[in-house]
Amino acid sequence: MSATQPTTATGTTAYPLVHAVNVTKAFHGNEVLKGIDMDVAKGEVVCLLGPSGSGKTTFLRCINQLESIDGGRIWVDGDLMGYAEKNGHLHHLSDKQVAAQRREIGMVFQRWNLFPHMTALENIMEAPVQVAGQSKAKAKERALALLDQVGLKDKPSAYPAQLSGGQQQRVAIARALAMDPKLMLFDEPTSALDPELVGEVLKVMRQLAQDGMTMIVVTHEMSFAREVADRVVFMDGGVVVEQGAPKDVINNPQHERTKSFLRRMR
Ligand code: ADP
ABC transporter domain spans which residues (predicted)? Predict the structure, then answer.
């Protein structure tokens, strides 16, 4: 398979921001992704739905190379993840090159994973200063703006332990945004939160979507998927079972597996 994506007749690239083709992944012989094809357009919000164990998290982790894939290809913004083509052959990228690709993708995990010994502001400034080499002054200015964006303008000096779970998740979102990612991946960002804290995190995500961020969100929040997603993708057993507009898939699922999952979600 070629490392390059097709170009249009006029020579301009017509690729989606994320283009995944026949992605497979096994753990110890257990194939958890069985040939996933998925395209996500720039600015699109896609929610991944499906029962626990269906491979949603693994697929997200493959996109940003926290897991290596066994087969298939993933491109993000035209870059083939993990590989480069040289003399017609594909070569694995070096760790440094993989890190550079990963820097363009923001990820927010189920459990907030802030640095506990750093304030909210320091958490957000860390990567821009240490990894991207920004000046502290510039990184601080941006971090303060991001704290404002996630509704935590008054918390720059708070340590994670002094923040609620919802506040910590909002700092985690701000921290991911600080590297100006092309794509944001969310892995059940609200599932570890007390119910009363879910709304404040979803609100920040909703605003991000409205601002045009390309997002792939693994979630069990059906109302969020219905309201914010441009498309929902239902996965089960390592395959995409069906996908489409939320109103079609959630209100009128075609496949028995989707119907039975949605019945259980109600
Ligand atoms: P989902 O996000 O849909 O709940 P996951 O991608 O987390 O599904 O998991 C899919 C399957 O892969 C599960 O059976 C899980 O136990 C297995 N799995 C995920 N990560 C690993 C790993 N690092 N080692 C072994 N098995 C794993």
Answer: 18-262
